[in-house]
Each structure stands twice: as C-alpha cells, then as structure tokens.
Design goal:
- With about 300 residues, this protein is α/β, with parallel strands linked by helices.
- The protein folds into 2 domains: about 140 residues, ATPase, nucleotide binding domain (Nucleotidyltransferase, domain 5, 2-Layer Sandwich), CATH 3.30.420; about 150 residues, Nucleotidyltransferase, domain 5.
- It contains 9 helices and 15 strands.
- The strands form 4 sheets. It has a 6-stranded mixed β-sheet with strand order 1-4-3-2-7-10, sandwiched between helices. A 5-stranded mixed β-sheet has the order 13-12-11-14-15, sandwiched between helices. A two-stranded antiparallel sheet has the order 5-6.
- A hairpin with a 2-residue loop joins strand 12 and strand 13.
- Helix 7 crosses helix 8.
- The mean pLDDT is about 95.
C-alpha cells in the first residue's frame, strides 16, 4: 500500500469510505458522529489482474478495510464503496460497467467484505460527500458537475439522491449543447463532455492541445485560437448549467474535478455568461461554487451514503 496517514482519535462508531479508481484505490475512515476524517490509505487498483480468480482490486479493497479496522481495534459500522458504473438501486453492487475494472459488475460488496457495505456511483458519491462535509454542506437541492477527462454529474432534490430506474440518472456530461458536434462515448451528439472534457480537447483543437492546463497557459499568453476554444467551452458550460437550473431549481451548483481547479479561469467568464442566459425570477441567482473535498470526495460520499 502506497500511502497512509492517521490521527489519534478513536470514536465509538466509525465508517470506512472506499473510492475505486482506474489506477488507485483511495480509502478513508471517519467518525460517523462528527464526519471528521481520521485516516487515509491508498493502494494500486491493478485493473485486469486476478489472484485465484478474484479481481486484484477487490482484494485491495478488502485489505484496506482490514487495515483500518486493525488500526482502530474494532469493526467498522459501515463501509461505503464509490466506483464507476451504474449502481443497483439497493446499493449492493455496480450492475453496468463495461470496458474496464473486469469483475466489478455484479460484485456484491456486502458479501465479499462480509460486513455492512453499500456501493455507489463515483460521481454520485462526490456530490454526497460535498453535501455531508464539503462546499454544499447541509444543502437539500444541489446539482454537481465534475469536469475532468469527461464530465460527470449528480443531482440531489429535496435531500434525496436522484439515481433513476437503472442508476443512469446524473450522467449530465452527456447532455447535448450542439447537435452538429461529434458524439460522446454513449453516442450523444454535441455533449457538454465534448465541449469541456480533457478527453476531447485534442479533437476539438485539431491536435494542438492535449490538456486543459496547456490550453489555459496559451490563453494567458494571449493566444487568440486558445481563447476562442476556451470561450466556447465556458459558454457551453454556462448553457448546460442554466438548463440544469431550469430543470432542478437547485440551491447551488457545485463544480468539481481537475479542470475546476482552474477556478480563476472559470469563475468570472462563467458568471458573465450566466448573467445573460440564466432565468432569475425575482432576481434570484443560483450560486455556482467550487467543490472543496478534492480527491477524497468519493470516500466522504460513499460512507455517508452507506450509514
């Protein structure tokens, strides 16, 4: 295991949050009464590897849980697992995740870990974490977009996470903003994911830029083409957010993910565009805020969902 940190607090009730990513498995334990982060640990995912027929990532999750419990000298009250894919409505497993993390589909975590465990989609978990202990703490109506390689999302209405009939709800990155643009990975033409996701940047800049950080450096240097690309990205993001506000009437919209870390390049132009297109009855403006939990949001949200 590659990393660990801990504190000398031993609550009577603690939970463990797991965030299963493509390269790393992050874990954290929390005081369930206060939400305080007590310790973290990570291990490589080892996607594609198996040990005696068992996916290596599943064994990695179990080892992390056992490690936290050994350090506490007690069993965790709950274990929450955040993972990509469509989660079953009862939180038992990920039902649909083709193409990666072989063995994840239909792996029932409470049976494998032999404990009180629940599973949640990773973008859903990020929002639940921000509501529990992050930027949207104690809010009951929240929309979140995670801007990274693609665009993820999640919605909480009246305090309830919207998961949908098969767990598909919240895939906001596949909302279309330009029908003539190329399709997203699920076949949606002109999705917001294409307009702002890192995974499509080379395609929409004819190979000139590979990462949004490079694009923004060029914008800062006065590159007219880079500025045109970034302006379109922000305009598309604003259009998506305005539409989501009309659909869900949230208290706040939260932006997370790696691209959102360039907040100084997003905040002002996004506010400018929203000032032109957001429906504001009685002058009511929905704040768009930056997520605060960073890479640990999934761990926070998974354990909060499970408890």
């Amino acid at each position: 295991m590659s990393e660990s940190s801990s504190f000398s607090i031993h609550p009577s009730s603690f939970g463990i949050g797991i965030d299963l990513g493509g390269t790393r498995i992050k874990s954290a334990r929390f005081d369930l009464a206060t939400g305080q982060l007590l310790a973290t640990a990570m291990t490589p995912t080892r996607d594609g590897e198996r040990v005696d027929g068992v996916p290596a990532f599943a064994l990695g999750v179990r080892e992390l849980v056992q490690r936290h419990e050994a350090e506490m000298g007690a069993k965790a009250s709950v274990v929450g697992v955040s993972a990509p894919g469509l989660a079953d409505r009862d939180g038992s497993c990920i039902r649909f995740m083709p193409g990666k993390l072989d063995g994840l589909e239909n792996l029932v975590w409470r049976d494998f870990l032999q404990c009180n465990a629940k599973c949640l989609n990773d973008a859903h978990a990020a929002l639940m974490g921000e509501i529990w202990q992050g930027a949207a703490k104690d809010k009951r109506d929240v929309v979140m977009l995670t801007l990274g390689t693609g665009v993820g999302g999640a919605v909480v209405c009246d305090g309830r996470l919207i998961q949908g009939h098969i767990g598909r709800a919240g895939h906001l990155g596949h909302l279309s903003v330009a029908m003539d643009d190329p399709p997203s990975i699920i076949g949606m033409p002109g999705a917001i994911e294409y307009q702002i996701g890192n995974g499509y940047l080379a395609q929409r800049t004819n190979g000139r830029f590979q990462m949004t950080s490079d694009l923004l450096s060029a914008v800062g240097a006065g590159d007219a083409f880079a500025k045109q690309v970034w302006d379109r990205s922000i305009q598309s993001l604003a259009t998506t957010i305005a539409g989501l506000i009309n659909a869900f009437d949230p208290e706040v919209v939260v932006l997370g993910g790696g691209i959102a870390n360039a907040w100084e390049s997003i905040d002002a132009p996004l506010k400018s565009w929203l000032g032109k297109i957001e429906w504001r009855p009685g002058g009511h403006r929905v704040p768009v805020i930056h997520a605060t939990l960073g890479e640990w949001a999934g761990c926070y949200g998974a354990v909060h969902f499970a408890k």
